[in-house]
Amino acid sequence: MNKPESLAHYDSIRAVQWQGDRLRLLDQRLLPQEERWIECLDAAQVTQAIKDLAVRGAPAIGIAAAWGVVLAVQRGAEAGVALARLRAARPTAVNLMWALDRMKARLDAGADAAALQREAQAIQDEDLAANRRMGELGAALIARGSGVLTHCNTGSLATAGYGTALGVIRAGVAGGRIERVYAGETRPWQQGARLTMWELVRDGIPAQLIADSAAAHLMRSGAVQWVIVGADRIAANGDTANKIGTYQLAIAARHHGVRFMVVAPSSTVDMATASGDAIEIELRDPAELLSTAGRRTVVEGAQAWNPVFDVTPAELIDAIVTERGVIEHPTPAVMRMMFAA
Ligand code: MRU
Question: Does ligand 1 come within 6 angstroms of the Cβ of 164?
């Protein structure tokens, strides 16, 4: 399967589904063992689903939050309160704030529930279209016969569908450019092991899981030519916040002459944040590190520090791919040219 027209085959998952009066979410805490859907009937349930990682991934949480605003208005809840709670659900991925700002602008303009529903649907549809475009743009950078390493989950589960970095991998495999795919486990929550591998197996894309700690060894072997990751927030100078472990992959990639690609829609670009130093990094419960699959694996009494994102400096990034185009070697000036309002 290596013809571009086979692309549709690599796109079968829709994890965020609006049902007219409720939001269905494929519960990502249970994958791959169980494919269970949860139904959110109000904005509070959407907020909780975002906090608990039932829905996760930067674009997906923005989309879910937009539907949360629709639910708040449909149920006659105080929209300002719902907006504030949704906004506070997670701090790092700017897509959440971006989507809520869009919904707030419509609310402030007097939009009714039907108009808000159209706006949330537009946010979701635009994300899917952006992912398909980024897939083409990113895959075009990859030479035939390449191997790639990805981190975390950036696929259909993390977006409206198709994915960002995983979208480039889908397009690169479909077009015959990518021959080898490796996915890091992404400790501690295991988005790579549990979610990316689930998507790849489901789409019939051959891939190998590696322990996060095997990445530098893999790069030294010559099997990968690109590291391809998503982003949770890209600052005005190109510094990029993404899942914890991304920064060390970028350092190892530079050392080994492996190129490093960030793939994210323009909704992930935050021109109001000057550099990565100003990005808030989410700290999650240390229990996520002290246990595996709900079972304590570390001695009682031990403590842990659990930052779940890190910042990769722009100078380690070879290409930022958005639906607006590709920026090679990001600088503040080029970022301004592409993303100034
Ligand atoms: O904590 P998560 O699972 O929400 O983190 C997700 C990531 O870091 C992804 O790599 C990022 O959001 C890009 S997803 C298209």
Answer: yes
Q: How far apart are CA 225 and CA 72, in angstroms?
A: 47
Structurally, at CATH architecture level, domain 133-339 sits in 3-Layer(aba) Sandwich (3.40)
Please pick, among 11, 203, 232, 270, the residue that the annotation labels catalytic: 232
d(CA 121, CA 118): 5
pTM to 2 decimal places: 0.96
Q: pLDDT by residue (tens digit) across 243-261?
A: 999 999 999 999 999 999 9
233 C-alpha to center of ligand 1: Å? 10
The domain 3-129 is classified under which CATH number: 1.20.120.420, 3.40.190.10, 3.30.360.10, 1.10.3860.10?
1.20.120.420
Atom of ligand 1 nearest to the CA of 152: 10
CA-closest residue to ligand 1 atom 10: 230
